[in-house]
Amino acid sequence: MPPVPERNASVWRRFVESRNGLGFLFMLPAAAFLLCFLTYPLGLGVWLGFTDARIGRPGEWIGLENYLWLMDDPVFWLSVFNTLFYTTVASVLKFGLGLWLALLLNRHLPFKNLFRAIILLPWVVPTVLSALAFWWIFDSQFSIISWVLMKWGIISQPINFLGDPWNARWSVIAANVWRGIPFVAISLLAGLQTIPQSLNEAAAIDGATPWQRFTKVTLPLLTPIIAVVMTFSVLFTFTDFQLIYVLTRGGPVNATHLMATLSFQRAIPGGQLGEGAAIAVAMIPFLLAAILFSFFGLQRRKWQQGAD
């Protein structure tokens, strides 16, 4: 019978040399990172949502009282409406404009690589810096938009972009769309690059119009990429915090408060950690819905490969 240390060394060697074992070892650092910086904060947030914890006080278990309180909180429901409206409108605009840019950049254009690099600029610029730039653009007195429209005689006084509730909503949506279009455009462009050109050429020979080639060839083959890209886009938009907090802090009159910004306001400046955590936990069902959208969108790949 071989000694125990030698037998253990043999087992360890086989484990390391196997494909699954090596993959498991490579995944350990990422798993540890996710456990420390994602799983633990999520679990702590869920726990705090069932307590009356405040800053400087651990709190006691109170069950569903925070969630029952939120059910009767009009500001919370306004933030839910703002979040859904903000996410839906911004995501639709980013998809439409991003797809148009991707199709345009997929053509044989002069200086195509330069245009691709320029389009990436809104995405690589820090969010806070972008928000400060839009803060100046939407300023109630010194807005460049109001100045140009007044010079052209279209308006007689500056537009109150961030002081009127609906103007503020559309202003933050415009800022988010400007920042998010590059991610959608470049990702969809990468998907377009994988579609064989021979398929479009064959459809053109058969007499298909450009619109028919797009709807019958390009769009179906691009569906899995669209599902993944739009899932990430929706997640980024739904959980947006920096842009809203720098531009409006949730104002005016809570008109631009998203669930993320309201959670922060209640938990940190307001000191109600339990209530803020409950608002954050209430975001989870919406995020799961976005993930399920991606999952069912990816099922189209089976259809493309000839499966039922």
Automatic annotation (TrEMBL):
InterPro entries attached to this UniProt entry: MetI-like, MetI-like_sf
Transmembrane segments: 21-40, 75-105, 117-138, 219-238, 277-298
Listed GO biological process terms: transmembrane transport
Domain of life the protein comes from: Bacteria
Protein localization: Cell membrane
Entry keyword set: Cell membrane, Membrane, Transmembrane, Transmembrane helix, Transport
A Pfam family this chain is assigned to: BPD_transp_1
Gene Ontology CC annotations of this record: plasma membrane
SUPFAM superfamilies, alphabetized: MetI-like
PANTHER family registered for this protein in UniProt: BLR7065 PROTEIN, SPERMIDINE_PUTRESCINE TRANSPORT SYSTEM PERMEASE PROTEIN
Protein name, UniProt field: Sugar ABC transporter permease
Organism expressing this protein natively: Paracoccus yeei
